[in-house]
Each structure stands twice: as structure tokens, then as C-alpha cells.
């Protein structure tokens, strides 16, 4: 631990207060940054945040604290660049860390824009700045794939090694980041509906809050989570992680962005020890049957010879299907008036001029949605057609949103 760093919250607070006073008195920011750089190496982001909160509670103006935040973010950007050596270029961790550095820069740009617009008199005076804010917002929206790659791939592998709590905490922080971003997006969309003073107040809150949270969050991942993963994961696991990263895709600002692989090499389906390995998981035959029986949709599959091969058997099937339909030609499963249209759709699937067909109709006060999709193998060869039928009466009535929490 650095000789100036203390385990005491009071001492840390006093050291940060001393640096803020130096900035306020006009001391060279570069000199203060070097002092803070030494201090920050021995403090966690949480300790810094606690010290700053204590100073605000004691009456120090938030603007004074934010002068130190400028230094804090600048130091964080430097340390993130230093941390890049943890993994080679192209490695999943290196990709994530490069995105960290860029997102932190975007957040800092937001805060700098606040400094420019706070001296203006109305929303009409900041047209150019609004355009810059919207451009930054577009990049924050694109950053969603960054968090999805961590949550669905990196965290999942860590959990297999028994590392469960850190990913949970990081995921909670991802959601906090998303909440701030949504508030920022909403503010810009509704900027003309509130007073300029209120706009400035909210923009300052969101811009500053986002920058501080990203700084703290990225520090935890770079200093703790990623090194832990580097120690635990095997080379083959990292290769698999990278393949899955490519599958999800990257942010528009990711350096040397790899192309999203739409057609990744699929594993062959195997049946071993009474389980069906589908490449994305293993199910017993009993489980597989139950999955089909509990789907909230009806499925019928017609093979490439135009004969029915399979149908799902749920409790609320919309159209009657019985075992006698298996092997029946699809043209014999429809009334004469619709046979030509059915065959036209299938021909379109076979010659690749059609990729989907959909219809909806009212039956006994229910809205029934019917879709047809061509089924092809990895070489693009036609294997048959999938009919998906769903009662969307309730779905059609949905409004707003209903979340788990």
C-alpha cells in the first residue's frame, strides 16, 4: 500500500480534501494529478466514492468534488491503458478493456459538454452541443453488446469455476449503468418539455453519474475480474469465449472490430447415454418431448418431400393434429381453395425466392398468427417447411412493460 494511503476512511477523506483544495487554489492540475495517481493506486473505487460522499455531506460544494472527478477520470484513462498488457490484442479481455477505455472517453466527453452548455441561456443556444450529445448517445446504445458479452459468456465461464458473487455484482452495476443511460436518452428526447435550468440540472446529474459509475465499474473489472479469469480459463476456453464473442457481435466503436459470424460452425447432433446433444445443450428424450409439449406455440414440420413428418402436441393446440397426419402430403391437409397458395409458398422456399410467409385470422374471438419458414441445413439445402401457429390475442393487448423486478 502506498505510504500515504490509510485504512481509515477519515484519513482518505482528508487526503482527497487536501488535493481538492490544491486544485481550488489554482495549483497546477498536472502536479495534482500525479499526486492523485499515487494515491489512487492504493485505494479502491469504493474508498474514493465514500470519501467524496463524506465531503459532500460535510458541506463541500459538489462542483468542487467534480474538479477532483476530472482528475480521477483522467487517471483512470491512463491506468486502463496500462492494464492493456494483461492480454494480447484480439484476446476477449483485451477487446473488453479497449472498449472500457473508449466508453470512459465518451463519458468524459459528456461531462465536458456540460461545462460548455451550462453558460448558455436556452436550449436553442445549444443546437450543436445537442448534436454531439446525440452522437455520444448512439455510441452508448451500441455498447449494449459489450455488457451482453460479459453477462452471457465471460460471467458464465467464471461461474463454472465457482466465481459467482463478483459476476452478480458486476451485472447489478451493468443494470445501474443502463438505468442512467435510459434517463439520459429520455432527457434528450424530452428536452423541449422542461425548463433549461431543469435540463441542465438533470444532464449534469446523468453525465457525471455515468462517468463516475463507469470509472468505478471498469476499475473493478480490469483490476479484479479480468485477472481472475486470466488465471482460471484454459487456452481452449478462451478460444471458445472468443468464438461466442464473435457470435454476439461488437460495438460500432470496437477497435479492429471482427465481423459478426452469422454462420458459426455448428456441432453435429449426437445421441449419447440416452441424451440428445444439440450443440447448444443436452436433453434426455423425455425432456425433449416435454419441451415440445410445453411450447406456447404449435409446430408442424413438413419434409422436403412435402409430407408431414412431425407436429408438437400441446394442451391448447389451435388446429387439430392426429397421428394419422404423419406421412400425409401437405396439399391434402388444406381445403381446395387454399392449396394453390400453400404450394406456391413451398415452391418459393425451395427456389429461395421466399424466406417467410405469414397470415393472421380471427377464430372464435381469438387472433391466430400463422407463420411458415423454410428449414435449411448449413449448406443451404432445403429440408422442409416449419409451420408455427400462435394465439396472440393476449399479446395484442399488452401495453407498457412488466419487468421481473
Structural class: alpha+beta
Tell me, what's the shape? Answer: elongated
Average pLDDT, all residues: 85
Query: Span between N and C termini?
Result: 40 Å
Provide the CATH top-level class of the largest domain.
Mainly Alpha
Question: Would you report the number of β strands?
Answer: 8
How many individual domains?
3
Any chance you could write out the topology, listing elements then pairs?
Layout: H1 9-24, H2 29-40, H3 45-57, H4 62-83, H5 92-117, H6 127-142, H7 144-160, H8 165-189, H9 196-232, H10 235-248, E1 270-272, E2 275-277, E3 282-284, H11 285-294, E4 298-303, E5 308-311, H12 336-350, E6 357-363, E7 366-376, E8 382-391, H13 393-396
Antiparallel strand pairs: 1-2, 2-3, 4-5, 4-8, 6-7, 7-8
Give a brief outline of the structure:
This protein is an alpha+beta fold and 405 residues long. Helix content is 56%, strand content 12%.
Mind explaining what this structure looks like?
With 405 residues, the protein is of the alpha+beta class. It folds into 3 domains: 61-248, Four Helix Bundle (Hemerythrin (Met), subunit A); 266-294, no CATH class; 296-396, Beta-Lactamase (2-Layer Sandwich). The protein contains 13 helices and 8 strands. The longest helix has 37 residues, at 196-232. The chain is elongated, with a radius of gyration of 28 Å.
Amino acid at each position: 500500500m502506498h505510504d500515504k494511503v490509510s485504512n481509515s476512511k477519515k484519513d482518505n477523506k482528508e487526503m482527497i480534501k487536501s488535493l481538492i483544495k490544491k486544485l481550488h487554489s489554482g495549483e497546477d492540475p498536472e502536479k495534482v494529478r500525479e499526486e492523485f495517481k499515487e494515491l489512487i493506486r492504493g485505494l479502491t473505487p469504493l474508498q474514493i466514492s465514500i470519501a467524496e460522499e463524506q465531503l459532500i455531506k460535510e458541506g463541500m460544494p459538489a462542483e468542487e468534488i467534480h474538479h477532483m472527478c476530472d482528475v480521477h477520470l483522467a487517471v483512470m484513462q491512463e491506468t486502463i491503458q496500462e492494464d492493456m498488457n494483461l492480454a494480447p490484442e484480439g484476446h476477449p479481455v483485451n477487446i473488453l478493456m479497449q472498449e472500457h477505455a473508449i466508453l470512459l472517453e465518451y463519458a468524459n466527453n459528456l461531462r465536458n459538454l456540460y461545462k460548455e452548455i451550462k453558460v448558455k441561456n436556452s436550449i436553442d443556444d445549444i443546437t450543436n452541443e445537442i448534436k454531439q450529445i446525440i452522437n455520444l448517445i448512439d455510441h452508448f446504445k451500441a455498447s449494449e453488446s459489450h455488457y451482453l458479452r460479459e453477462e452471457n459468456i465471460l460471467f458464465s465461464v467464471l461461474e463454472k469455476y465457482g466465481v459467482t458473487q463478483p459476476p452478480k455484482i458486476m451485472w447489478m452495476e451493468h443494470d445501474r449503468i443502463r438505468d442512467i443511460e435510459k434517463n439520459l436518452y429520455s432527457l434528450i428526447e424530452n428536452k423541449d418539455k422542461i425548463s433549461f435550468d431543469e435540463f441542465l440540472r438533470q444532464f449534469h446529474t446523468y453525465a457525471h453519474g455515468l462517468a463516475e459509475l463507469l470509472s468505478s465499474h471498469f476499475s473493478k473489472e480490469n483490476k479484479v475480474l479480468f485477472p481472475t479469469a486470466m488465471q482460471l480459463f484454459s487456452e481452449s476456453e478462451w478460444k471458445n469465449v472468443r468464438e461466442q464473442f464473435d457470435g454476439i457481435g461488437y460495438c460500432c466503436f470496437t477497435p479492429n472490430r471482427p465481423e459478426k459470424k452469422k454462420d458459426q460452425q455448428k456441432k453435429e447432433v449426437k445421441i449419447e447415454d440416452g441424451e440428445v446433444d444439440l450443440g447448444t445443450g443436452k436433453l434426455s428424450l423425455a425432456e425433449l418431448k416435454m419441451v415440445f409439449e410445453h411450447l406456447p406455440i404449435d409446430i408442424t414440420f413438413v419434409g422436403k418431400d412435402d409430407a408431414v413428418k412431425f407436429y408438437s402436441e400441446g394442451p391448447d393446440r389451435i388446429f387439430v393434429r392426429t397421428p394419422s397426419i404423419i406421412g400425409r402430403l401437405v396439399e391434402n391437409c388444406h381445403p381446395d381453395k387454399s392449396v394453390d397458395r400453400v404450394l406456391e409458398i413451398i415452391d418459393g422456399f425451395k427456389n429461395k425466392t421466399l424466406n417467410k410467409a405469414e397470415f393472421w385470422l380471427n377464430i372464435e374471438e381469438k387472433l391466430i398468427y400463422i407463420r411458415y419458414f423454410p428449414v435449411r441445413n448449413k449448406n443451404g439445402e432445403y429440408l422442409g417447411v416449419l409451420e408455427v401457429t400462435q394465439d396472440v390475442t393476449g399479446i395484442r393487448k399488452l401495453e407498457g412493460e412488466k419487468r421481473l423486478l
